[in-house]
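FW: tagging you since you asked about this chain on Friday. Here's the raw sequence from the shared folder, copied in full. Didn't touch anything.
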Amino acid sequence: MDGLILSLVCLGAVLALIAIRTPIGVALGVVSFCGFWYLRNFNVALGQLREIPYYFAANWDLSAIPMFLLMGSIVYVSGIASALFKAARVWLLALPGGLAVAANIASAGFAAGCGSSVAAAAAMGRLAIPEMRKAGYEKGLATGVVASAGTIAALIPPSILMVLYGIFAETSIVDLLIAGIIPGLMTAGAYTIMIIMRCRLNPSIAPPTHYEGDDLWGERWRSLAEIWPLFVLVLGVIGGLYAGIVTPTEAGAGGSALALLIAVVQRRMTFAKLWEAVRDAVTTTAQIFFVGVGALMFTRLLSFSGASNMLTDLVAPLALDPLMIVIAMTVIYLILGMFLDPIGIMLITMPVFIPLLKALGFDLVWYGVLVVKFIEMGMLTPPLGFNVFVVKGVAGPDFPLFTIFRGVGWFLVCDLVVVALLIAFPQLSLFLPSFMN
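HL: got it, structure written out here
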């Protein structure tokens, strides 16, 4: 059995194990172990199993992940999302679909502080969906905006997916984090324009709402007083990265300390909440590292078998038309996004795609932004759109899955427009990193 066939068999085995609900890390590890055993012998396979977990965990760049996760957990448990939505609501209420626009903008702001699509969708869903339904908003719009806007968290720093991609692609994590800013803002802007246009053309899906108090401008300025520390936090983290003052790990550690200080000063933090934040960060870090070890074993297996080089030679004729390669990978990511979670998709595909992209001379920072965008779009696609199920759990039984999937369809169209712009104009994602360098 040659290396390419063995690699395809192993990839099929991984997907089959995942299909029967085997944890992704276990599926990757078991298949890789068996592959090493077949290619070499049992002792070599056992040696890889001993060496790779340490080699992976000892990577200093990975320490940014628990730091960013802790920062996001502190922001989440301290109730910042509620203050953000309140501020966005009083400032944007007069727009067509003002509550939906407020949910979108608040999600983008919260994403910059937590870095988790799931956390952003869950937090904003509890706050915004009841408000929109009370105002008579159509169910698909109310749930679709929350599920879709949560995905912005993977683009705007801090982003766990960007860190993981940077490690496996062996490219600058700082460049990747900064490169996601403009695409993230473009996505939020596209969603906002679409919501306003839809609600202006069909006011029945979002009846106009009005401020019920007597002091609108006073309420607006008071709302900003509750959220300005979050902007200080975000600007501190992004500004430090952009200026080259701090590494991603230092940015995460400093951001966690600053988030904790802000929460304590605003009296939003208790020992119980702090313990919840630490426990959540540790648990999620362990899950990511477990999958990462399995993915690194799979990468080694592909290298041992020679599949990476053979795959590069196989698709080399397509190098004359890079757009065809990008389109093919786009389709693969969108299909996988229907069935797998984001981190699993990235860690399964990176061992296959990264050597190919390097050999063909693609800019790995630009493609990293596209990969993260594809993965986040997969969180909205049926049958297993992860963010859709999160919003379904928050919204309750009155919101059928079909209604939520129909609602996110409009936002997926916006995502496709953003992706087309990023492919046609790579400088949209590369401008800030190049200017920084």
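FW: The two ends are 47 Å apart (CA to CA).
HL: agreed, and The chain is about 80% helix and 0% strand.
FW: great, closing this out.
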